Amino acid sequence: MLENPNLIAQFQREETQLFVLRVMVGLVILYDHVHPHGAFVKASNVDVKGCVKLLKDQPAVRSEGLLNALRYTTKHLNEDATPKHIKNLLAA
């Protein structure tokens, strides 16, 4: 689904776009908490890199809170099994 660069653009109302982004972040956080290895390992079914890139493509006003939610409410982000490129994406 994230392969489509116009994913957010297909929704006309800004409220709907923000809702889709919030749901995406919420699902990543939920998956990270319920899966034994989390959402950030390479074997995960979640495209965390794509999610973060999609958020970073949005204006900072829309995405900064969501990026902070990923940074500070996920369970496995700071573990050794998390790839460095994912940590670097969320650190910047």
Automatic annotation (TrEMBL):
UniProt keywords, alphabetically: Lipoprotein, Membrane
Gene Ontology cellular-component terms listed: membrane
GO molecular function terms attached to this record: small GTPase binding
Chief location bin: membrane
Localization per Swiss-Prot or TrEMBL: Membrane
Annotated CYRIA/CYRIB Rac1 binding domain residues: 1-87
Topological relation to the membrane, as annotated: Lipid-anchor
Gene Ontology BP, a term: regulation of actin filament polymerization
Protein family: Belongs to the CYRI family.
Protein name: CYRIA/CYRIB Rac1 binding domain-containing protein
Organism: Laodelphax striatellus (Small brown planthopper)
